[in-house]
Amino acid sequence: MVKIMPKGSVLVVGGGIAGVQAALDLANSGFLVHLVERTAAIGGKMSQLDKTFPTNDCSACILSPKLVECGRHFNINLLTLSDLIALEGEPGSFKAIVRRRPRYIDPGKCIACGLCAEKCPKKVSNDYNMGIGERKAAYLSYPQAVPLKYALDPDHCIWINKPGRCGICAKVCPAGAINFDDTVKEHVLEVGSVVLALGFSRFDPSSLDFTGYGRLPNVVTSMEFERLLSPSGPCMGHLERPSDHREPKRIAWLQCVGSRDINRVGHPYCSSICCMFALKQAVIAKEHAHGEFESSIFFIDMRTHGKGFENYYNRAKKDGVHFHRARVHSVIPADDSGNLQLRYVDEQGKVMFAEFDMVVLSTGLQVYRHTVELAEMLGLELDADNFIKTDSFNPVVTSRPGVYVCGAASEPKDIPQSVMEASAAAAEAGLIMAPARWTETSKKVYPAEMNIHAQAPRIGVFVCHCGINISSVVDVEAVAAHAKNMDGVVFSQCNLFTCSQDTINQMVSIIKEQGLNRVVVASCSPRTHEPLFQETLRDAGLNKFLFEMANIRDQDSWVHQNEPEKATAKAKDLVAMAVARVRGEVALPYNTVPVTKSALVIGGGVSGMTAALSMADQSYPVTLIEQSECLGGNGRKVYRNWKGDKFLPFINELTARVTSHPQISVKYNTEITEVAGSVGKFITTFSDGHSFEHGVAVIAVGGQAYKPDDECQFLHGIDPRVQTLLELDQRFMEEDATLKEVKQAVFIHCIGSRIPERPYCSRVCCTHAIDSAVKLKELNPDMDIYMLYRDIRTYGQRERLYQEARAKGIIFIRYDLDHRPHVSEKDGRLLIHAHDPIIDANISIHPDLLVLATAILPREQTGSISKFFKCAVDSQGFLLEAHMKLRPVDFATEGVFLAGLCHYPKPIEEAIAQAKAAAARAAIILAYDAVPAESVTAMVTPAKCTGCGVCVEVCAYHAVALDENGISVVTTSMCKGCGACVAGCRSDAVTLKNIGNEQIMAAVDAAFY
Amino acid sequence: MTETTNWEPKIIAFLCNWCSYAGADLAGVSRFQYPPNIRIVRVPCSGRVSENMIMSALKSGADGILVSGCHPGDCHYISGNYFARRRFALLSNLLDFIGIESGRVNFSWVSASEGEQFAEVVQSVTERVKALGPATRLVKKIDALETELLIA
Amino acid sequence: MPTINKRISEEIRAQARKLLEEGEVAAVLGYGAGSLPMTVKPLVVRNPEDCSKLIWNTFCVLNLANYLPAALKSVEPPRGPRDPKPEGPLPKVAILVTGCWSRNIVVQIQEHQVARDRVVVMGVGSRGMVSRRKVAALFPGLEILAVKEGDHELVVQGADFAETINRWSVVRDNCQSCTHPDPVLVDVRIGEPVSERKNPNPFMQVDAIEQKTGDERWAWFTAEFATCIRCYACRNACPLCYCPTCFVDDAKPQWVGKSLDAVDTGLFHILRAYHCAGRCTDCGTCETVCPMGINMRMLTKKLNKDVLNLYNIEAGMEPDAPLPLTTYTMDDPEKFIATEVTPVPGAVKEGK
User: Fold this and answer.
1) How far apart (Å, rounded) are the C-alpha atoms in residues C257 and C251?
2) Residue A307 above 50 pLDDT?
């Protein structure tokens, strides 16, 4: 094959969170991205959510900055209302044809004033609100839409269907943006690779008569309910039921509507996310409710298998959410009031009735019809459920080389998993195009910065409603009015969403028009939104450090929900404090640090090796350290995955690739003794005394199996017939012939998981246990196998395995924490006592094999490694990512990434995806010659310096030294801006730029005006 | 004494950006409710907080002070909170020695994942300060007078 | 037989003369006679013939370490701030010290204010210095014209009286509670070494205040500092206070108001004391020089007590050791972290 120079641009299809993440990762690592979105705006399903589990983050709030970044990105070409219609060529050099449907409103001219929509006479059902309420034929998808441009709906616009009949929008548009003659355009794009992020649709329950959906107005789907909860939804976040706009007091959630249902729906798989979705809705609905509120969830198994999920479940139970393990037989009207009666059979087989004000159907996920069509056009293989087929060990790779898939188009999955896959797909796509990095991109040029040195402060204050997140508690208008009187403030106003594209654009023009030289935004946390607003300042020609935020949401309206007056007073103080602080701020230089283009990977398991290979294949040198004498980690102990693919051949191949890779150097029996430096240049010292300089690090130190020996009740380590899943796997691998002779086997689930001292689900053990049971059945079809479980959590398509197990006659018996199985030995035989809740009777089993599905724990050294890199650890000892939803492989510490079991228990395909994602995120830094460094650094006033050296002693970064005259000097490039020297200095000779004593005390004093 | 019946203390909280400020954000995200008396000042590190800042805040009229940083060992800047711990231990003892009521100046460690703990800390500090009543010791009278005028 | 201090004075003069004559030092920092009874003044001697002016007596209460950096500067060849450092070794200065002042020099070395190799330490074991104020208090309304010093008694003389008093009874509080009277740095030994003093409780006065209730302590504090006239004599006499701009003089931000308001005065003393934390050797000069008789030493003594109890450090004992506030241990006491938060069950215990 002739090596051709690949293209330096890439096609990403789908503008949901996965597509947006893939586009950002690729654009930030040096490729031009064409992002194709079918609808008029990017944002996808996540934009429709009210809150996200398990942190209850406001979905729009965390998504919006990403969308805005995507919309403003210099190297992302956003193609909305567009479809990929043809793709030819080969990896590295594809020719894609994208058909762009007419918007009929010129985005270059539209100022998003909304007059067209206001005057448009044609009302259309509002698809963003799931058909609840109406919008116009001239419309904006949703308030924070990116791009923030209106469109005409060609199916409903009167003029488009009958030219000459209406045209009011064209008359009222002040920008002359309406263009009825807009036509379909086809773009031919030459790209190196293609990432598909096609998303999912929700199952339509109209066909399920028993639910009453479509007939009974108060039966809604979970997405519809989400819109009812949302402050940007049809009832402005004041929960009302559709029939009579009354506030519902009793709501039932019906799980698995359109999932785990072969008979009526033909969807054998589990949709993975609906259990958490329902839990979240039950919790949030209760928060919305005024007074009494009752929520009930009807479920088969409660599947809370993700990080932080089990805790959320426990909290919901504590908060009074009722759980019924039952499938509902029918939903019928209770009376004429709109109330609903549910008929179901409880666990003991009794027929029960219950009345509710409202019923929410947790509808399952499925692929879009057009996904299937697109897959056919592209020649991609689909699996039995029509999801795009991927390989166990290559989770984002499709059957067509150069075409990658991420997100729920390949299997139902939640946001963090989709985001990880998006980054992983970016890594794969980038691999092909690595030689062409930076060849097709262009660089953002900011306007020259205004010199404000001699100017008196002219401060602008922007106060955010955040939908109703702030304004429902804090009187934001009063806060803005109050700000007008503050010293130096020349402008203040309120905004519905300050982070939305239109407000951002407006802010730029206000800064220019008003000649502002400092800006305060009173909204949410600077930890999430400061970068966005700082960039806005730069766009307006202001130095980005002339900015402060007042956190009147996370630290005010959200925590004083019942004290609006005091919260408003507090907001005024917080704004006054921010104004006082910004008043004393000055423009700072944008410092950078050169990047050492090499990586350190810690841990030689599957995740570590995958990450190392992914970076090394992009020709970055990688040092991989492993604490043992061999590579492979936990993967070597596992027999096969749920699809039947054996681990060992894969791991051997992976190990061989790693050890023979010219860019990877492997250090065995090695641990870390010291880490110095930070992103761009870390210097890590190993236990052999050598040190290594690297720009980034990936932590993949894995996990370890829980040892049940301490809990003697299971006789593990005492009776040889009692084994863990991994010990059984060992026997499978050794092809132990004695296994065929086992007559009766018992598996006990959740050993060490989901208990008060370890309140998390280990995610993989249900699937692993069932697969092992199936394997035993393969060896001896006559074997009796009992599974003692709490909830079966074969999420996603793993559900098929559960069905297969039951079909093979494996018997599942549920237990709960009050009736835990008891294991003993009697007359040389194992004896297990358990309680069967269906027949409500105690049972005894005498197995000749007892298998324990034990928990996965973080390794003991995780904590010490996290300390070396200043990373956080969660309450269970797993590494804590920067953000649970949207930054699943990053740490708050820049330049350090995580993958695999050290993050949370996960199966191999997820670990591989996460490792590739970590590599992609790391490669973004390695793609640059220099990365931004701290601008907020310490500074010495020599005339005040005594040369006492306290600053030198307390600096953890060796950034301060005494010069030959005995006066302190700061090496700016080494300073991290912690301010220890400032606090230690008795003579106030050291200050921290813009966080000096002067600014801080001005803020403190402002609180007492 | 009309002003004491409606009196609400103002508590200045110096929170480190990486742990306690993030913990305060998490309290918000989780909707843990706490009394609205604190005014948070974001600083990079608890090691950035000096005795001068604390005393000056008292002088300006703070009824209570809270300084909160990362747990020992978790400092984003490696050792800032260790130095802070020594400084605050001595300051706290000295203030007690001169008769500043215990509970006026408070210190805590709250991590980024401890939203609920943050709310609890604020709750308990606020209760303590409320029980002590308005700060009078080391409050510059002129400020107190102004405040009274404002209340009236 | 001449008194101990007479013999010491002789020895000082002889050693000083020798050092100057041999060119070992360019100046000797010692004491000369004061103009009033029971006073001395610091004296810099540069010529061997002036050494006879040096004295040593029980009223040597000014801390000479306070003048050391300036004395060192004064013997350097003059140069501007941007001029290069002169080549070769700089001239030395000899200084007369007792236990606490030698420890101040150690702190000055730790804080880079003094180079060890430029100082010749003439060490005298301290027998405790007498408080003028205590003596005067014994003779209310009477003017003391002269005090004659014996080893263990003082003869106090006025116009029409002469009375013998016990010397130890009028020794300064800080000297009475001192445990390290002998210098920790000695280049030239003067007189006999004095052994470490076993003091059952050097912090007795602090303990007495600690035992009061909070309100009583506040009453003590406000009363004690109420008379301060902000003359800054305490600050100026202290070898630890060498900042070019003191925090009280800062304007941005203004940490402490410049008025005689009780709050401003209180803050000045609290913060000044705090700035001495872990550095103060309890030399007592601040109190000695105070024209209003304020016992501001109680604040620094309290800090000394805590630094010793919490971190097992006494200021200025070892030149190579870090100062207590520029170091830490992982398990420093943190009882003051009083947030009353119960740990989450199952919370991770991280390895240290």
Assistant:
1) 9
2) yes
Q: What is the pLDDT of residues A982-992, one digit of tens each?
A: 999 999 999 99
**Residue-wise DSSP of A718-778:** TSTTEEEHHHHHHHHHTT-GGGGG--EEEEEEEESSSBTTB-S--SSHHHHHHHHHHHHHH
A318 phi, psi to nearest 5 deg? -65, -35
Query: Could you tell me if B107 lies within 8 Å of chain C, comparing CB atoms?
Result: yes
Dihedral (CA of B85, B86, B88, B89) sign: positive
Q: Quote the pLDDT of residue A233.
A: 82
Angle made by CA atoms C196, C137, C104, in degrees to the nearest 5? 35
The DSSP output letter for C183 is -
State the Cα–Cα distance between residues A677 and A691, nearest whole angstrom: 12
Domain limits, chain B: 9-143
Residue A978 is nearest to which of B36, B39, B47, comparing CB atoms?
B47
**Does ipTM surpass 0.90 in this model?**
yes
A153 has a pLDDT exceeding 80: yes
* Alpha helices (runs of H) in chain C, residue ranges in sequence order: 4-21, 68-75, 99-110, 132-138, 173-176, 204-210, 214-225, 233-237, 262-275, 285-289, 297-311
H helices of A40-82, in order, are 59-72
* C-alpha distance from A354 to closest chain C C-alpha (Å): 37
CATH for B9-143 (1.10.3470, 3.30.70, 1.10.860, 3.40.50): 3.40.50
Which residue of C85, C240, C326, C352 is the best one to mutate when testing the A interface, meaning the one whose CB has the most A CBs within 10 A? C326
**Domains within chain A, CATH numbers bracketed:** 1-101+184-200+367-445 (3.50.50.60), 102-182 (3.30.70.20), 202-365 (3.50.50.60), 459-583 (3.40.50), 594-702+859-931 (3.50.50.60), 708-857 (3.50.50.60), 938-992 (3.30.70.20)
Residues of C within 8 A of A874 (CB-CB) are 348
Q: Does residue A917 register a pLDDT over 80?
A: yes
Chain C residue numbers with beta carbons less than 8 Å from the beta carbon of B93 are 302-303, 306, 336
For residue B95, what are the CA distances in angstroms to A92, B91, C223, C270, C306? 70, 6, 16, 8, 12
Report the distance separating Cα A693 and Cα A684, nearest Å: 6
Phi, psi torsion values for A730, nearest 5 degrees:
-55, -40
Adjacency order of strands within the sheet including C144-149: C144-149, C153-158, C162-166
pTM of the model: 0.76
**First-residue to last-residue Cα distance in chain A:** 75
Q: What CA–CA distance (Å, rounded) separates C119 from C103?
A: 13
Q: C243 lies in which domain range?
A: 203-334
Written as six digits, the tokens of A451 are: 């010199």
Structure tokens at A790: 């709490």
How far apart (Å, rounded) are the C-alpha atoms in residues A478 and A568?
Answer: 8
> How many distinct structural domains can be found in chain C?
1
In a domain, C171, yes or no: no
Q: Which of A282-291, A822-831, C193-202, C301-310 has the highest mean pLDDT?
A: C301-310
**A353 token code pair:** 């009735």
pLDDT of the residue at A597 = 96
Q: Which residues contact A54 (CB under 8 A, 6 or more apart)?
A: A276, A280, A306, A307, A308, A309, A311, A312, A884
Give a yes or no: residue C240 inside a domain: yes
- Peptide bond preceding C200 in cis form (omega within 30 of 0): no
Interface probe with A: pick from B16, B30, B86, most Cβ of A within 10 Å: B30
Chain A residues near any Cβ of chain C (below 8 Å): 756-759, 860-861, 863-864, 866-867, 873-877, 943-950, 953-954, 962, 964-966, 984, 986-988, 997-998, 1001-1002
State both tokens at B66: 């809270």
Q: Which amino acid is at A656?
A: A
